[in-house]
Amino acid sequence: MPGFGGKQLEMDGSIDDKSEDSPSSSGSSQPQNLSTVVHTITAVPTAIPNQPVQVQSVIQPTQQSVIQAAGQIQTVQVEEDGEGHLVRTDPDIEKRREILSRRPSYRKILNELSSAEAPGIAKIEEDKEEEAAITSIQTTIPSYVQTSEPTEPPSHQLPIIYGPPVPLPPARMQDSSKVRGIGDASQDSSSYKKVTAGQTIQIAAANQNELTTQGLQTITMTNAGQGAVTAAAMPAGTTIVQYTQGDGSQQFVTVPVSISPAGEVQAYQIRAPSSLPAGVVMATPTGITSPQQLAEESARKRELRLMKNRYKNREAARECRRRKKEYVKCLETRVAVLEQQNKTLIEELKSLKELYCHKAETE
DNA sequence: CTAAGTTCTCGTCACTCGTT
DNA sequence: AACGAGTGACGAGAACTTAG
Questions:
Q1: What nucleotide is nearest A30 when CA is compared to C1'?
Q2: How long is the CA A280 to C1' B8 vector, in angstroms?
Q3: Is the CB of A301 under 7 A from strand B?
Q4: Residue A250 near residue A308 (C-beta atoms within 8 A)
């Protein structure tokens, strides 16, 4: 992360009241950070003599924790020991650890920073701009999701996905040559296209009317492609199908499939949507007795839970990153402002000194 | 021009914390 | 206890940079 690494923040005590509350971003899940961070104390000239110097202890960012470190600005009280050395007299370590162990919220930190922001910083404007930018990003539909107008699809093209898409990462982009529209599911199985096991595929009908009447918009079929855990999770011959209804709600159903030795899904059958009960539908294995079955069942439940959370979490991660960026921007702005203030104060001190010297000479 | 290296971005999972 | 929100860590792929 260029631009953050090694950047030394020099701040005066103007935000001490806020930094006291600023939680560390090294959550309790990473308490080891406490022992690895390097605290450097930077003395900043202040215009107020004979007072304890308040400086910021800035955690030296490491490659992986640059941004986290930005949230770890703490107040450290230091006093001169009479020989010009700064002696740290900050509150006890335990309290600090307690603060550090609390999980941060960038929103909270940002709000605190914003409320303490020096006037003249065009922060709201900036936020608006950023918000607009984010909106435009979020409304940009990934190129790998087909969102054509619901017109007659060209005969050479694949079924078109209508409605809120379930974006798939490019790596798992549906292989259009291997996917058949769900509307064809009732047809002769010999006409099924082959789907390589281990892929996440997206299925949609070529006919929108068919979709709307059936209440289905998109279907994502996940098989054993997400690692060994998933592979073990799914009982042989079944897969979980995720589908999105017209109202955007997501549903899940397990579907029996047959996989060829070559690893290709040869056939899959999905019940008519009208027969699908609301919510999650699972083919509950009967008579689970062996530990292996129990493990399979729990793994399957886990997979289902993850699948349900995936979309939300994706959005949450985006939001989190946006807030983080906003927060870092805010910090950088603050640094710029404080640096400017520092410069001004130094200049002022210089001119006052000159004035004083000049006056002393003339007297 | 291209291969290798670096940085950026995104999705996913695991985990914690607060709320119900 | 269950659930949702928030966030760190990690991996993968895209985008960019640099050396030969």
A1: C8
A2: 37
A3: no
A4: yes
- The region, left, alpha or beta by phi > 0 then psi within -120 to 50, assigned to residue A257 is beta
Scored b (16 or more CB within 10 A) or e, A278-315 reads eebbeeeeeeeeeeeeeebbebbeebbeebeeebeeee
What confidence score (pLDDT) does residue A114 get? Answer: 55
Q: Single out the residue of A26, A197, A30 nearest to residue A99, CA to CA.
A: A26
Whole-angstrom Cα distance, residue A40 to residue A55?
10
pLDDT of residue A305: 77
Distance CA A167, CA A202 (A): 9
Residues of chain A with pLDDT under 70: 1-289
Q: Are strands A238-245 and A250-259 parallel, antiparallel or unpaired?
A: antiparallel
Report the alpha-carbon distance of residue A141 to residue A339 in Å, rounded.
41
Would you state the pLDDT for residue A315? 87
Q: Is the CB of A321 under 7 A from strand B?
A: yes
Q: Which positions on chain C have an atom < 7 Å from some protein CB?
A: 5-10, 12-14
Do residues A74 and A19 touch, judged by C-beta distance below 8 A?
A: yes
Query: What one-character DSSP code corresponds to residue A117?
Result: P
Through-space separation of residue A170 CA and nucleotide C11 C1' in angstroms: 14
The spacing between the Cα labelled CA in A142 and the C1' in B4, in angstroms, equals 29
Q: Quick check: A137 CB within 7 A of strand B?
A: yes
- pTM for the model stands at 0.41
Distances from the Cα of A159 to the Cαs of A16, A99, A155, A182, in angstroms? 60, 54, 9, 9
Residue A354 (CA) to nucleotide B7 (C1'), in angstroms, measures: 48
pLDDT for A136 equals: 32
CA distance A253 to A271: 10
Alpha-carbon distance values, A313 to A12, A179, A237, A316 (Å): 38, 27, 29, 5
